[in-house]
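Hello,

Our lab assistant flagged a job as stuck in the queue for most of the afternoon. It eventually completed. Since we weren't sure the result was trustworthy after the delay, we are filing this so someone can double-check. Below is the sequence as submitted and the structure that was eventually returned. Let us know if re-running is recommended.
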Amino acid sequence: MLLDKLRVLTGHSRKINWLWPLFITIAVLLIFIVRSWRDLPTEDMDRPGSWWVRVLLFSKIDSCQVETSAGFTVELVDGSKKAYSSGDKFQITLDANGFKVGTDIFPGGQILIRPGEPYIFTLDGMKFRGNLRLIAFEDGRFDAVNVVPMEAYLGGVIGAEMPRYWKAEALKAQAIASRTYCLYYKNTYGADRHYDIRRTQANQVYMGLAKEYNATRNAAHETRGQVLTSGKRVFPAYFGSSCGGHTDDSSEVFGKYFESVKGVDCPYCIDVARKSQFFWKPAEFTAAELTRKLVERYENIKPLGEIVGIEPRRRSDYGQYSRWTSVKLIGATGKSITLRGEDFRLALDTTGLKIKSTIFELAKVKDKWVFYGGRGFGHGVGLCQCGAEKMAKNGKNAPEILKYYYPSVEITKIY
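-- returned structure --
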């Protein structure tokens, strides 16, 4: 019917008769390309475990649903295993006897689920590459950990941290920074727990196949094995959305000194960041609400009573604006306590969507604390993502971008 209408409207029936099959062919090819990329087998499944990452997907859950397209095998710590056919969804729970997969019981406090090729599993509706490990707790709940090769992991990080349509050099800069950040956390904290890194903003966002695109896969492939080093060691290559015009030292914001994580002027992000995120609107909290939120996060604040005074104990001064790096809280009881500026911000706004950064002014207006004059989005340390995009648009490559935001850094290929 649509084709007939087009013929009447245009009067070019022969031309449309010829174009119509072409349109269909192009559409089918596009669908095939997208699907074939999505279904590509997970790379590096045979690599040594030192280049794998354990990502905490969900913590302290009661149950989950697992599905694969090619079946999977459940393995116990002792090496025993059982195979399951493809296409079925399995509800997994935990009871006093162990993990229950469908109707089968697996004793012990841990199971490993290995999907068949293309080594992809669906967990509660989300698709991930690699394997899935479930670790039990005594309270009847368990953690779900994605055990995945580094490069496959990055495919689901880059697109979650940066828009896929950004410049290739910005995406490659993000890939190297994210690989470095992950490896630092793996080496520093992984030995003392059953995961290396979280999939949330507490570390870096990881969405699996939902945020895996051709552009992000290319960014990972073209920087394969590349990390940032300082003094021949990896460091936490922090990054944030937009710094507001100037990044800060890691020691000022997080209390940890790293030679290559120093503040630099950033005239770039203002041209890329959304105006509402670069110059954010005022946020208000009543005195009672502000006190309650702080006490919920830090119980040692309770003896202060209601917070009646908030002062900047230390600021990073950038001229026309400054970042609160240390905050003094004064209570009605006369007692006081000091918090890092970033801890103060996130205690009041765990989402980081109201108080978007610690670049702000603060005033008490009647019974309300008003945060105004805010600029930037994030903690402001390390790579400014919007700034990286602007630099890429200006013709800078990934190494140039990274060496700007991480002074004196080296790019090292470790595999």
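-- support follow-up --
The delay was a queue issue, not a problem with the job. The result is valid. Confidence is low (pLDDT under 50) at residues 1-10, 30-36. The longest helix spans residues 13-38.
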